[in-house]
């Protein structure tokens, strides 16, 4: 039981038919480990889709890169998150799988604890992200890669 919490009424409730959908692929060329902010491209896709109210799915087609929604104001957050992931899944751990190099299995583990896909509401033809939120592709491998992200939005 949560003490003192108050749950408000529904605000801005809307209902209607699903009448539009759109999809596209986004290729992200990474330079190695780190966060790539894809929020602008994803927002442009939603604007082009014509969907005013619905849900967006963002899906990463890889098992050694992932997606996250994180703070977009202070780059130190990304640095600290990478440090935490390095501690959680170190590159030279005692892994059985190693045929693709010492960074491959840690990359799979990091993807396991982050996300391969995200769902983001679309309200008033915009991503319903919080003030300090951005959508990021996280590259977990040590060398550059071309990562494919699939975007799909449905709504009205």
List keywords for this structure.
5-stranded antiparallel β-sheet, alpha+beta, globular, 3-stranded antiparallel β-sheet, 156 residues
In the sheet with the most strands, the strands line up as: 1-8-3-5-6
User: Into which percentage range does the β-strand content fall?
Assistant: 25-35%
Number of helices: 3
Mean pLDDT: 95
How would you characterize the largest beta sheet?
A: 5 strands, antiparallel
Measure the end-to-end span.
38 Å
Secondary-structure-based class equals alpha+beta
What is the element string, with H for helices and E for strands? EEHEEHHEEEE
Shape: globular
The radius of gyration over CA amounts to: 18 Å
In percent, how helical is the residue content?
Answer: 10-25%
Number of β-strand runs? 8
Poorly predicted runs? none
Describe the model:
The protein is of the alpha+beta class and 156 residues long. It has helices at 39-49, 75-88, 104-113, and strands at residues 20-29, 34-37, 54-60, 65-71, 117-123, 126-127, 133-139, 146-155. It contains 3 helices and 8 strands. The strands form 2 sheets. Strands 1-8-3-5-6 form a 5-stranded antiparallel beta sheet, with helices on one face. It is globular. The protein starts with 19 loop residues before the first strand and ends with a strand. The relative contact order is 0.35.
Q: What is the topological layout?
A:
Blueprint: E1 20-29, E2 34-37, H1 39-49, E3 54-60, E4 65-71, H2 75-88, H3 104-113, E5 117-123, E6 126-127, E7 133-139, E8 146-155
Antiparallel strand pairs: 1-8, 2-7, 3-5, 3-8, 4-7, 5-6
């Amino acid at each position: 039981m949560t003490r003192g919490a108050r749950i408000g009424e529904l605000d801005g409730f809307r209902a209607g038919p699903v009448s539009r959908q759109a999809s596209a692929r986004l290729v992200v060329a990474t330079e190695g480990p780190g966060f790539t902010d894809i929020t602008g491209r994803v927002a442009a896709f939603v604007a082009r889709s014509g969907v005013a109210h619905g849900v967006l799915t963002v899906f990463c087609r890889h098992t050694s890169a992932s997606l996250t929604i994180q703070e977009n104001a202070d780059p130190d957050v990304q640095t600290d998150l990478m440090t935490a992931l390095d501690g959680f899944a170190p590159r030279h751990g005692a892994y059985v799988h190693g045929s693709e190099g010492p960074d491959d299995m840690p990359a799979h583990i990091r993807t396991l604890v982050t996300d391969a896909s995200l769902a983001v509401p679309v309200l008033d033809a915009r991503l319903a992200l919080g003030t300090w939120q951005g959508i990021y592709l996280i590259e977990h491998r040590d060398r550059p890669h071309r990562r494919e992200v699939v975007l799909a939005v449905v709504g009205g």
